[in-house]
Amino acid sequence: MPKFSDRVERVSISGIREVFEAAGDDAINLGIGQPDFPTPEHARRAAVDAIEAGKADAYTGNKGIAPLREAIAEKHRTDQGVDLDPVNVIATAGGSEALHIALEAHVSAGDEVVMPDPGFVSYDALTKLAGGDPVPVSLREDLTLDPAVVEEAITDDTAVFVVNSPGNPTGAVSSEADVREFARIADEHDVLCLSDEVYEYTVFDGDHHSPMEFAETDSVVVVNSASKLFSMTGWRLGWVYGSAERIDRMLRVHQYAQACASAPAQYAAEAALRGDRDVVERMTDSFERRRDILLEGFADAGIECPVPQGAFYAMPRVPEGFVEECLDRGVIVVPGEAFGEGGRGHARISYATDEAHLREAVSAMADAYEAVR
Question: Is the pLDDT of residue 21 over 80?
Fold first, then answer.
């Protein structure tokens, strides 16, 4: 039998999937990370119109259609004050591909990538697939990433450090002071800061800031996506931006791996970016209400949980056996160690589900906690 590559043997299927497969069909799913809102109607309509007009029949340019890249540039100029040239944007197959091509373009065999622990599962796996070595760093008690810990972890072999705010799996939001420090670290150490900002609009406390706002060199690359901003996870449309030199290298990976993002999704994302943003406020308000339901239930049950400031995730501190007890009661939660050793002793909860099911799940989690503490 032909051998497999060393790179692919370094990764395995996400531990999140194992939890899903162990649950019953009627379980309440607090494991999946996607909004439960419909895609905005004007975005859907734009895709249909593009299909009916024949505009989605052919490849687009590798970077994506110009109107989408212009809309992305306008969004970042408005939201972050970044003077972004649309030429320096690549539309990708979701934020996942954007992360992939960013790491492939910047990580050589044996290079180190500093990343939060616990952190999004793709950081570790994509680093290994690029031939690099993950360097996980612990979070503060409130689950935010400490710039001092990041800086201490940087060595001569470090190529990239990853920042994710608002964060998955933590729901933590980095302060402006911390984000300024991330930009300084990237500038002074000549190391790339890869900023994953896909939950940018879902902030309850404080404000979202990007290292790109404060960097004085081309030391930052930003990944973003329509998936969580506009409830378009199935459309698979993200983007990455950075300096012209960095975009050139990422494009070399993208054009061979993907050619271009899905044409209908590009037209839909352009419409979402240019259209009515009321859905964004509705989603954020709803997720904040659900967060409060969750935290109130945890407090009543005696479950300790850092307060999530954004996204739609929480990471309560739980005893061993909690996840299994939740599954036995028909509630899917993800063990914290699926996101790194730093997540051990936690569970990751996605509260992107309706309030009635969430209240039912909170009651079941309280019973599960009582059974194992």
Answer: no
